[in-house]
Design a protein that fits this description.
Elements: H1 2-15, H2 25-35, H3 39-49, E1 88-91, E2 97-99, E3 108-113, H4 123-141, H5 147-151, H6 156-182, H7 188-241, H8 257-262, H9 276-309, H10 311-315, H11 317-352, E4 361-365, H12 375-391, E5 395-398, H13 407-418, H14 449-457, E6 461-464, H15 485-492, H16 509-514, H17 529-538, H18 549-567, H19 581-601, H20 607-619, H21 631-665, H22 671-675, H23 684-692, H24 701-704, H25 707-710, H26 722-737, H27 773-811, E7 815-816, H28 820-832, H29 835-838, H30 842-856, E8 858-859, H31 861-882, H32 896-906, H33 916-931, H34 954-971, H35 985-988, E9 1023-1025, E10 1028-1037, E11 1039-1042, H36 1045-1054, E12 1061-1069, E13 1073-1082, H37 1083-1101, H38 1105-1109, H39 1111-1114, E14 1115-1117, H40 1120-1134, H41 1147-1150, E15 1152-1154, H42 1157-1169, E16 1180-1186, E17 1195-1201, E18 1207-1211, E19 1213-1214, E20 1223-1224, H43 1226-1292, H44 1297-1300, H45 1308-1316, H46 1323-1366, H47 1368-1373, H48 1378-1388, E21 1399-1406
Parallel strand pairs: 3-4, 3-5, 5-6, 18-21
Antiparallel strand pairs: 1-2, 1-4, 7-8, 9-10, 10-16, 10-21, 11-12, 12-13, 13-19, 13-20, 14-15, 16-17, 17-18
Helix pairs in contact: 1-2, 4-6, 6-11, 7-9, 7-11, 7-13, 7-27, 7-43, 11-13, 15-19, 15-21, 17-18, 18-21, 19-21, 27-28, 27-30, 27-43, 28-34, 28-43, 36-37, 42-43, 43-46, 43-48
């Protein structure tokens, strides 16, 4: 804590945070104290706080497009050494091999890339040819004085060709002599055929035997792995579908929603042996083994026939050896022809393409330009070969036919034709590739180890076929400009305006592409002679095919532009990079413009000045009107305009050409190479992956062939072996580039045998992605989980959509005649059923609810119109008498206010017994005022016509059938399978489809994060020494479970040494996801982990004390308990009916919610994994990766406490640990399953609440209707009674006591007359009448009060349902243990689970 306070003080003192009003040093100290001593948390907090609020933005203005002297970067690298060149080369003009000290650094050279076929010509053969030639000269002349003169008349290529011919003739004589001695009547040609046949059969037999044995081992291994992974996949399926029988398929998740629901054909089925996926692996392995066995047996039969034909070589071993020697000499003769043809082709290319001639020209071949007997020279050559390729002008690629033994027969026939003038010419030679566009990736050249470096590091490539016919394309005529155009484009991208290109801010590339020099012949007098020859050569467009005509025209125009730029003094920079391209081109433009301006000021009449004036006058577009640059800038604008046109014409053609070459050359992943801006500096992982698909004659050449492309150099030593050489290569990559992609390898069998280099693989094939059994089985397990989870999600979303449609129908107040008991029964079934049981009934349930939505939920429009019509006629006939009782109240709370206003205005004093008389008096006064003038007794109003009786709803006719279906659905025995659908035909014929929701398939990688040099360079230091590799790592604790623990325990017990390697399978869990891993490690490391695994299983997975310790964090009380209690209280007090019948199905929301067993297990695992003290993790297997590197991958590691360092580590060779294809932890999957079931139940409860609301609304309507009827009946009785008494009193006299007792009369005369005649009235009848009236009024008031309470209750349920619907996921998620909530949400949203609970920035020394 003291150290943390010191850090806080320093930060507060340095940053002076007291100047800020919102953050004080005291506040930061407190926050740091709360954070603790975690360096990663402290670093994150500092990064969060001390980030500037303002970041400058850099914009390019118009003025910046015009370069000036101050904009040019003149910084150059120190000229400490010249570019590396080969130690010797062949002079194209003389045909002689020249040593390096006779070669100038200004001379140009090219390299020959080819496929070695047999015995090639070497430097020793050249030396021997010279010696033999001298011997022949001495023999012929006999005088030593003329020897040197005659020897100088022959070049080395001619000499070696001549010597090869003589060697073949001599060998023929030897073979013929042996045939005469053996008395064999066979020709040399026949012997060659038989020897070739024997050699081919021997090679085929060895390959077939190896293939058969490997396939047999693969079958045995697949069966063992199938047994293990069937159990894992079965367990993964049980977690999702919730039963013990694997009724679902573990196939690839490609089935649609309809297939999942109905069991369609896209859902793979299981066979008797187990899961379809693992069974497929075994069956494919068995098929491959059966085919390999058949091929081997067929070869055995053929071998017998071949053996009979080749018995002559068994009788005479010398004869067989001499025939083999003849074949080797034929191969050397063909190699000499290859060199001769390569020289002629290189001369043609230098002549017809744009290559500046600065001196002599050479060609280099790896076969004859290295003295392989001199080991020092060989080692130096292998180290510098990459530099030689990159400095060459071009690479000439000979795409010969694939190597085969039968080539010796064709070579012998060709030799007889050309040398001996034999009449047997043999088959006519046909080129293997007719044109450039027909080059395929199947060529053998693209599969060799060395050709990868030769192709990638060369500036450009030219191709010839097996017959040395050029496979040309127009773009190759650009010559040395070809590799420069992509860098020139980097410069032109920064040009925002040009006075000759128009004023738009973004220049139109098509405009520059279409511009061309009109009358180019008028400019020829100003050009150089070499450029004129090149232009004339490019004008010969007739040699190009039709498909190349447009490209040829673009190239021709580009060569014209290049010749003009050369004449203007523009010098194209060489050897540019992405970092230097802009400054180099800018400097070249400025220097060329300055030279022209200087010459113009001195009055020079050189060709460049005259050419510039001619271009401005007659060729260039008119400059923009507002442009007023200086002369120098005007000249720069001309040069820039020509560069813009050059890039626009051929920039895309070059990229397209490189992409096509990348396709058949096997370098497609090298994106920057295809764009032409990089020939080295690629991520090591990417280069090593490309090397996996290539072959080398000598295994160690796989390593040495990558030195150049990886940008490293070290002495080669073939005797060190492949593993040591690979370790040294990777050491140099780390030291030079800090590229941690070298650690992104996988393979249980790939652990390096080199001490201190467990971080390295034993073979470059560890970087390949072709065969990884761990990835295959992880995809199977993950596919099983995703498939079952997809079925659950499809069912869930289908159920939720149906329930929401039902809710819309139920809560719509304008609808009536809804069979709520159907909806309630369906809701009950959904609530109490698992997703597996719901799946087969999903379509039928959807049809029932869709029928309710479309045909049962009729709007009340017709009924409302009829009621309005009846009320209108009633008002017209009796508007004064009964208008106040024509109540039309709806039981919805939003309309309750207006309804209550009508009640109070129409019934003043309703419910107040003391004011009944006065209240009714107001009505009686209005009535009497109109009744007094009438002479006759008014007749009662005519009754309105009775409305027609409503038709019976259609659903009532289907009620019995639907009810029966629901009973069968509820009581069906799952083991008996699906019964016949008893749904009524009316509902059964409804079309209903389950729509699969979007986003169920996990979004993968694809491309993921691209492998680039930037995201693979480690920002932290990596120390490489003889004892190991030290770096900064992220450490993730894991739970390791051995798949076959008993087997591994036996192997550990039987091991003869602690360092003995033992392999096995295990699952690695991060608490959220787990992957299956095939590993191999030393016995001591495995023994330690087995003990850790046992303790983890006993104390973590099955522990009960830890569960009690964590009980407080995983027990939750339902937030709905208080609400439910209040609802029940309201229901019991207002309606008198409890909710006891719903308690069983709502138990999960009204009682305490406790975590399930699976959830508790996951919580304990997470608590174990999140151990804060890394020292307590030592002695276990962990996951590790380099910190701060986005492209670094996790690998399995054994971590232990160290002495010189805090932690030691040793990598465990294992298959790829890829969490993008991982399976979800079974406990987490169970938690998600429970979460989904809770969401389903919650949605059903919402629907049930809306049903309650609808039922209360219906009861409210009934109560209101009853109150209205009672009030109307009472009013009718009062009116009838009053009229009868009025008529009776009127018949006696105007002052009759009866009329004075009429309750509606309020006149003084009536009151006085009533008092005078009170004795004459029958008091008993009057009391009975008013008692009945008061009873009716009381009952009406109670009914109206019930209506008011029901309306409020209805609104309460509706508001509660809306609230639950709005916070559905949140409220359900609260019932999940807090530590699992984010994981469950990610799983629900189909997101992956990458390790996130790791210790970052830990220094570890890896042995």
């Amino acid at each position: 804590m003291a150290s943390m306070t010191s850090i806080s003080d320093k930060i507060a003192r340095v940053t002076d945070l007291s100047n800020y009003t919102d953050i004080t040093p005291e506040k930061i100290k407190k926050i740091f104290d709360d954070i603790g001593s975690s360096p990663e948390k402290l670093r994150a907090a500092l990064n969060l706080w001390f980030v500037p609020d303002f970041k400058p933005t850099f914009t390019r203005t118009k003025e910046s497009a015009l370069s000036t002297l101050q904009d040019i970067e003149f910084l150059e690298a120190p000229d400490t050494e010249r570019p590396q060149r080969p130690l010797r080369m062949i002079d194209l003009d003389t045909g002689n091999i020249v040593d390096a000290w006779n070669i100038s650094h200004l001379d140009s050279y090219c390299i020959l890339s080819h496929r070695w076929k047999g015995d090639e010509i070497t430097l020793a053969h050249f030396m021997r040819a010279r010696e033999k030639h001298m011997e022949r000269i001495r023999t012929r002349t006999g005088a030593a004085s003329n020897v040197e003169t005659i020897a100088a008349q022959s070049d080395d290529i001619s000499l070696v060709l001549e010597q090869c011919k003589l060697d073949i003739l001599d060998q023929e004589q030897i073979i013929e002599m042996i045939l005469q001695q053996e008395s064999e009547g066979l020709s040399v040609e026949e012997l060659i055929k038989r020897k070739v046949e024997a050699n081919e059969m021997k090679w085929k037999m060895n390959s077939a035997r190896q293939n058969r044995d490997s396939k047999k081992s693969l079958v045995d291994l697949s069966k063992i792995e199938k047994k293990m992974f069937d159990t894992i996949i079965h367990r993964a399926g049980k977690v999702v579908d919730g039963n013990t029988q694997d009724s679902q398929n573990a196939g690839i998740p490609t089935a649609t929603a309809e297939d999942i629901v109905s069991g369609g054909p896209n859902v793979p089925q299981l066979d008797n042996s187990g899961h379809a996926t693992t069974s497929t692996v075994v069956s494919k392995a068995e098929e491959a083994y059966a085919q390999a066995e058949k091929d081997f047996e067929d070869l055995l039969i053929k071998q017998k026939a071949v053996g009979e034909r080749t018995q002559i070589f068994q009788k005479s071993n010398r004869l067989g050896d001499e025939v083999d020697e003849l074949i080797r000499r034929l191969q050397r003769w063909k190699s000499a022809i290859k060199l001769h043809n390569s020289i002629k082709e290189a001369q043609r290319i230098f002549r017809t393409s744009h290559f500046q001639r600065r001196g002599a020209r050479y060609i280099w071949s790896d076969t004859c330009c290295i003295d392989k007997k001199n080991y020092g020279e060989l080692s130096q050559s292998l180290s510098l070969m990459g530099d030689w390729y990159s400095n060459a002008e071009f690479c000439l690629v000979h795409l010969d036919t694939n190597s085969r033994e039968a080539d010796a027969i064709d070579d012998y026939l060709k030799f007889g034709t050309e040398v001996k003038n034999s009449e047997d010419k043999g088959p006519a030679a046909t080129p293997n590739i007719p044109s450039f566009r027909e080059i395929k990736s199947t060529i053998e050249w693209a599969s060799r180890a060395w050709t990868l470096q030769e192709l990638v590091m060369s500036k450009m490539t030219y191709f010839v076929n097996s017959e040395w016919t050029p496979l040309s394309r127009p773009i190759e005529n650009l010559g040395d400009i070809y590799p420069l155009v992509p860098f020139i484009e980097l410069h032109t991208e920064g040009i925002t305006s040009n006075i000759y290109g128009g004023l738009p801010e973004i220049l139109d590339r098509a405009q520059f592409s279409q511009w061309k020099i009109g009358n180019f012949n008028a400019l020829i007098p100003y050009l150089r002679e070499t450029d004129i020859e090149l232009v004339n050569e490019s004008n010969n467009g007739g040699r190009w095919e039709t498909i190349y005509q447009v490209e040829a025209e673009q190239v021709r125009e580009s060569i014209q532009l290049i010749s003009v730029l050369n004449a203007l003094g523009f010098r194209f920079p060489a050897n540019m990079t992405v970092e230097t391209a802009t400054s180099e081109i800018s400097r070249a433009v400025y220097l060329a413009a300055s030279d022209l301006d200087r010459s113009k000021r001195h009055g020079s009449e050189e060709s460049g000045i005259r050419l510039l004036a001619e271009l401005k006058k007659n060729y260039l577009p008119n400059p923009s009107g507002d442009a007023s640059p200086s002369d120098v800038n005007d000249t720069e604008e001309v040069i820039k305009f020509l560069l813009l046109c050059l890039v626009a014409k051929v920039g895309d053609l070059i990229v397209s050409d490189r992409r096509f070459i990348a396709e058949f050359g096997g370098v497609r992943p090298l994106t920057t190479w295809k764009s032409g801006i990089a020939r080295s500096g690629f991520p090591a992982q990417l280069v090593l992956q490309l090397s996996c698909s290539r072959v080398a004659t000598v295994p160690v050449d796989h390593v040495y062939a990558l030195m150049g492309i990886l940008g490293v150099r070290f002495p080669s030593f073939h005797a060190e072996g492949y593993a040591k050489a690979l370790a040294r290569l990777l050491d140099e990559v780390i030291v030079t580039h800090n590229d941690v992609s070298v650690f992104n390898w996988a393979g249980a069998e790939m652990g390096s045998p080199v001490r201190g280099r467990s971080m390295y693989p034993a073979s470059h094939k560890a970087y390949g992605t072709d065969e990884d059994r761990g990835r295959r089985y992880n995809m199977m397990i993950s596919a099983k989980v995703r498939q079952d989870r997809k079925q659950t999600m499809v069912t869930y979303h289908g159920i939720i959509q149906m329930l929401r449609d039902a809710i819309d129908c139920v809560k719509d107040k304008r609808r009536e005649s809804i069979p709520l008991h159907w909806v309630r029964e369906i809701t009950s079934f959904i609530t109490n059923s698992s997703f597996e049981n719901l799946q087969p009934q999903l379509v039928n349930i959807g049809k029932i609810l869709l029928y309710i939505k479309l045909h049962c939920a009729q709007l009340k429009k017709a009924a409302s119109d009829q009621s309005a019509q009846n009320d209108g006629s009633k008002d017209a006939t009796n508007s004064d008498e009964k208008s106040s009782w024509s109540l039309n109240l709806t039981p919805s709370l939003p309309s309750l206010k207006s309804s209550s206003e009508k009640v109070t205005s129409s019934i003043p004093g309703f419910g107040l017994s003391k004011n009944i008389k006065s209240g009714f008096g107001k009505f009686s006064s209005k009535t009497s005022e109109k009744a007094v003038p009438q002479e006759a007794t008014p007749s009662p109003p005519a009754a309105p016509p009775a409305p027609p009786a409503p038709a019976e709803p259609e659903w009532k006719q289907l009620d019995s059938g639907v009810t029966e279906y629901m009973r069968v659905m509820r009581d069906a025995d799952k083991s008996q399978g699906e019964k016949e659908n008893p749904l009524p035909k009316r509902i059964k014929d409804i079309a209903f489809n389950v729509i699969e929701p979007e986003g169920l398939e996990r979004q993968t990688s694809d491309d993921g994060e691209k492998i680039t040099a930037e995201n693979l360079a480690c920002p932290n230091p990596i120390i490489v020494n003889s004892s190991g590799i030290e770096g900064i790592f992220d450490i993730q604790r894991i739970v390791v479970t051995m798949i076959d623990r008993e087997k591994l325990v036996r192997q550990v017990a039987k091991a003869t040494s602690p360092k003995q390697k033992i392999s096995g399978w295990c699952t690695i869990s991060t608490g959220f996801a787990n992957v299956a891993v095939h590993f191999a490690c030393e016995q001591r490391i495995l023994k330690t982990q087995l003990d850790v695994e046992k303790a983890t299983e006993d104390k973590i997975i099955k522990e009960t004390t830890r569960a009690k310790k964590l009980q407080g964090s995983i027990e939750l009380q339902s937030v709905d308990q208080v609400v439910e209690g209040g609802m029940n209280l309201v229901a019991n007090t207002t309606i008198g009916k409890g909710n006891s019948d719903k308690q069983a199905e709502e138990k999960d929301t009204t009682d305490y919610i406790r975590a399930t067993k699976e959830e508790k297990t996951v919580v304990r695992m997470l608590d174990y994994i999140q151990e804060s003290q890394l020292q307590l993790v030592a002695g276990e297997w962990v996951l590790a990766r380099f910190s701060g590197v986005p492209g670094a991958k996790w690998f399995l590691c054994f971590l232990e406490l160290g002495s010189t360092h805090q932690f030691y580590g040793q990598r465990i060779a294992a298959t790829e640990i890829d969490f993008t294809n991982s399976a979800v932890e079974p406990g987490l999957m169970s938690a998600w399953q429970i979460y989904m079931d809770r969401k389903k139940r919650k949605m059903c409860k919402i629907l049930e609440t809306y049903i309650k609301s609808s039922e209360n609304a219906k009861q409210g309507e009934e109560k209101l209707s009853k109150a209205t009827n009672l009030a109307n009946d009472s009013y009718d009785k009062l009116t009838d009674a009053g009229l009868q008494r009025f008529e009776t009193a009127k018949s006696f006299s105007p002052m009759s006591p009866l009329s004075k007792r009429f309750p509606f009369s309020t006149s003084t005369e009536a009151v006085n007359d009533t008092k005078a005649n009170v004795a004459d009235v029958d008091d008993e009848d009057d009391d009975n009448f008013f008692d009945d009236f008061l009873e009716h009024a009381k009952e009406a008031a109670i009914s109206l009060g019930h209506y008011t309470v029901l309306a409020a209750y209805e609104k309460f349920f509706e508001m509660q349902a809306k609230h639950m619907d709005k916070y559905l996921a949140v409220s359900v998620l609260k019932k999940t243990p807090k530590i699992l909530q984010s994981a469950v949400e990610n799983l629900d949203e189909n997101k992956g689970f990458l390790p996130a609970m790791f210790h970052s920035g830990k220094r570890v020394h890896m042995f």
